[in-house]
Amino acid sequence: MKRLFCSLTAMVCVLALSAQVIYDFKMKNDAGQEVSLADYKGKVLLIVNTATRCGFTPQYKELEALYEKYRSQGLEILDFPCNQFGEQAPGSIQEIHQFCTANFDIQFPQFDKIEVNGPNEAPLYTFLKSRRGFGGFDLNDNTGKRLDEMFRKRDANYDKNADIKWNFTKFLISRDGRVVARYEPTDKISDIEKAIQTEINPVVSAIMARRSVRQYLDRPVEHELLECVVNCGINAPSGMNRQPWIVRVVESQQLISQVNEVYKKANADQVKRDPGFKNMFRNAPNLICVCTPAKGGGEVDAGLLGENMMLAAQSLGLGTCCLGGPVRFLKSNPDAKFFLDRLNIPADYQLNYIIAIGYPDEQPEAKPRDASKVEYIK
Q1: Which end of the chain is more exposed for a tag (fewer CB within 10 A), N or C?
Q2: Cα dihedral 227, 231, 232, 237 in deg (nearest 10)
Q3: 276 with 217: CB under 8 angstroms?
Q4: In whole angstroms, what is the distance from residue 182 CA to residue 204 CA?
Q5: What tens digit of pLDDT does each residue of 26-80 get?
């Protein structure tokens, strides 16, 4: 019974964390005033646990340089002094603040001292660690090697837990509140700056953040947002401005439900094996159907159209997934013909692909990309 209780407690904690977002937390600043992190919505955040008597303390200078360079573009650095690592952040928060302003002239917000590990750790850090675990020290760096050796002697598996290992660990938060990355104190500030440059640029950020979403909330997308997404699509480049595509946006929940019943009947075993199955369109509540000439041509333009729409959706807080499987099913199953008929596709066009769209109910990790396939010819 005790084991069951512990398991249930752990499950509740995990579910609570999964339901939280960065803006749910409130922290005391250096004046003892409670500050809601919701005040930083729309900003790119770099959250750092710091110390004033650490070998990494000179990073304050580098952090201030980043702040001065990118503050006007939406960067905020949130400083949380912590005395848990070698007691290298002694004194009151007022003394720490005076030291930082006198020695490094920091301008970014400084908060009250906190703990980042253990039973008294700040809930904010429980959340951050749940999103990004320990990534390892830079072993090409001499200090990184020493830290790794020191921790390895204490615990051969120290790198398997998400605890903060030392001062000046950093978490990068996107404009929409996602914990994008975690940087250990040995990671190069230049690498962090590159990531900041990505996040502060809304176009680049949307491109790098977009994932194929396959779980959606039971909430249809508002018509106005669908119009916005599609308008971004039809403004994509088109050769000679031919615009050789047509677009059909499915808002009818009834139509999706009806064709889904056909799919479930034809794929009963597959549906039964998938406990999360809601519909054949990766569970999305809305669809954008893109058609191209039946005789061929227009595929490149249609691809540009679709990419514009998926990136626009990402920037609006929506998720998307480009689908080909449902297209094959709709074309091959006679019982699904009514769905294609409702799309009112001209006789000289054919359905090319479908974009599932909706409010995401998951945050998939990025899949690796092979940069070795790129060559620069100079």
Answers
A1: C
A2: 160
A3: no
A4: 19
A5: 999 999 999 999 999 999 999 999 999 999 999 999 999 999 999 999 999 999 9
Cα 351 versus chain centre, distance:
31
Catalytic residue among 6, 13, 54, 82, which? Answer: 54
Span 238-287, pLDDT tens digits = 999 999 999 999 999 999 999 999 999 999 999 999 988 999 999 999 99
* Residue 39 DSSP one-character state: G
Residue 43 CA from chain centroid, whole number = 14
Rounded Cα distance, 13 and 25, in Å = 16
| pLDDT score of 5 more than 90 | no
- The whole-angstrom separation of Cα 286 and Cα 103 is 56
The whole-number pLDDT of residue 14 equals 42
- Specify whether 54 is catalytic: yes
- Which residue in the block uniquely carries the two structure tokens 């508002």? 222
